[in-house]
User: Fold this.
Amino acid sequence: MSERKDLIQEFVSVPAPELLETVSDIKTEGYRLGQICATTMGDTIEALYSFEKDCVLKNLKVELPAANAELHSITAIYWPAFIYENEMHDLFGITFKNLALDYGGHFFKIAKKTPWNPQAQEESKGGEA
Amino acid sequence: MGKRTVIPFGPQHPVLPEPIHLDLVIEDETVVEAIPSIGFIHRGLEKLVEKNEWPEMVYVIERVCGICSFGHGWGYCKSVEGNLGITVPPRAEYLRTIWHELGRIHSHLLWLGLLADGFGFESLFMHTWRIRESVLDIFEETTGGRVIFSVCKVGGVRRDVSNEKLAEIAKMLDGIRKETEELSSVFLDDISVKNRLVGVGTLSEQEAIDLCAVGPVARGSGVNNDVRYDGHGAYPELGFEAILEDGGDCYARCKVRVREVFQSMDLIKKAIEIMPDGDIDIKIKGNPEGEFVGRMEQPRGEAYYYSKGDGSKFLKRMRVRTPTNANIPALVKTLQGCDLADVPMLVLTIDPCISCTER
Assistant:
């Protein structure tokens, strides 16, 4: 019979400048990237990075200002992250520095202009003017 | 070095029921680079948490996919149940496991049919889908639906299945097994099928780990990251062991799915055998206030369901990360160096579900 291993979840807050170093340590420990997503929290955006190893789920939370949100891409450490980072750029307006495969805001090929984050749309309008 | 040409593959292509686009950079007949594009039919289902109360969202999340809809509903419920800190009655967990494994049989048979269609074996395709119909009949008899079931809810399930009906399902599965055995030998032993799959699109174990591949794509390369080990549903009591192959090629991925069809039948029969009596749901008080990441092993692989609540009737965030999302990097890697003629087989063997990806 298979051994029962209940999933253990940890949520850890990480300052944005320390993200790359923390993710690099996680990779060294043998974790794999599960997912990355963002949540709009009023004037801030919360990015959530999930990593898994042997039924332990490590979730890193990074808080960013909703206006001019910017993060370092983790694609140099976990290349598959490009899918999630391009998605977060288009949906939440987060800019990723050193993104390995950058779709330049065209990850979603739909009629509605991206990013959909209201603050980022305002910035975009301001830039056009 | 031959001349480089870019060949567009998709979004409309005979092997693609749904739109995904690949820019294939080829040198002579060999693919040297592949750049994927998705997002043609993004539906914004996650954003609907702002308009639907959390008990209703299960109907939305089920509609992420028409093939593994039960699993998505369960994944959502699991995430919200974790958020609320509630435990579901054992009978409900067993019923969920049975429906989920039926979903896996139906999904893998659907994929095997599409694979047969992809390499031009039409009669094999039709026979495979004919068998799949019997699984949909079981769904219809037990849930009332063939595609969307709406039986899973936060706190349990909406319908019970009588023990007599469960015994009948076990008998039906014996018939389905016999028919599937006849077809599986064609998929695994026929020389014309093997010629298209063996040694094509090899993904090594290390590459599968580095690219964070999931599901049969990872297990076909010997990587065991099956989520059914994490203690949910009835799996711990059913003696579940993940099916692994080490070839890493299209054939290995096909073999994992064929073996999983039979494994799912065994798991369902065992669940029916030891099904506990009792309630099928519990009453819930309050609203989710906190966050929880639920995971499910969908037929295509691991899926994530992140829910965040603030104590109101509306969730602050509902995130679904589907298996195809995670397997696109592995697809891009395996395409590099393959023959142009093998691209359709390669794309098929990750079992892409764009409906899931474009949730």
Q: What stands out?
A: Chain A touches chain B through 35 residues (CB under 8 Å). Residues 82 and 101 of chain A are 6 Å apart (CA to CA).
